[in-house]
Amino acid sequence: MEVMRNQEFLLLPAEELHKLLASDDVNVPDEETIFHALMMWVKHDMQRRCSDLSMLLAFIRLPLLPPQILADLENHALFKNDLECQKLILEAMKYHLLPERRTLMQSPRTKPRKSTVGTLYAVGGMDNNKGATTIEKYNLRTNLWIQAGMMNGRRLQFGVAVIDDKLFVIGGRDGLKTLNTVECYNPKTKTWTVLPPMSTHRHGLGKIPYYNNIILEKNIDSEIICKAIVLLRSIFITFS
């Protein structure tokens, strides 16, 4: 990402830029960043570089761009008269319009780069001491696990959901009793916020993030299978 901000990037020949755009290891926060970098490179010398645009655009993961950007590209002056560019844009738009067919549309352009796939977290669980309190995260790009934080206490059989890049830890057992407590962990600030407790103590629960809500279903409640679905409305909860 730092390379793209330098003057040297704008002076790269098309052959070298092609290698950069094709790499799974390029360090960018999202595909939009590398697309805008390509546009900057083309506009630096439009007269000579427009002829390379369709070749280079094929290495941008267009299906992973926001649909709003794709809609603007269709009639963009740089693309509207280039048949190959139009084909790539149409391919990306179909990927968004037909999500049920995405398994049939897989290609190198639908594969996220390593730095954009997010982070895998391992939260608590069982260890040799019958209850880990650590939070670890795995970075696909570096292929390393590191400790990201600590839980406030031991929990087993709890639920975890992610909303707005925050981890919600819900219910579970502390080794003695079933819990109804809910906490929110912010990985950026490494801070915990205690949220309002659930009306029922629950462990072994399933959870589904749904927009700004968390749906809990088919959980074990004091050894009884609870069939009710509880909707925890995080939009009414204020946390830092």
From TrEMBL:
Q: Name one Pfam family in it.
A: Kelch_1
| Keyword field contains Repeat | yes
Cite the SUPFAM superfamilies for this sequence.
Answer: Kelch motif
Question: Which Gene3D superfamilies has this protein been placed in?
Answer: 1.25.40.420, Kelch-type beta propeller
Report keywords, A-Z.
Kelch repeat, Repeat
Report the superkingdom from the record. Answer: Eukaryota
Looking at the UniProt entry, the stretches that span the membrane are none
Every BACK domain range: 3-74
Note the InterPro entries from the entry: BACK, Kelch-typ_b-propeller, Kelch_1
Question: Which N-terminal stretch is annotated as signal sequence?
Answer: none
Has UniProt tagged this entry with the keyword DNA-binding?
A: no
The protein here is known as Kelch like family member 1
Q: Which organism is it from?
A: Phyllostomus discolor (pale spear-nosed bat)
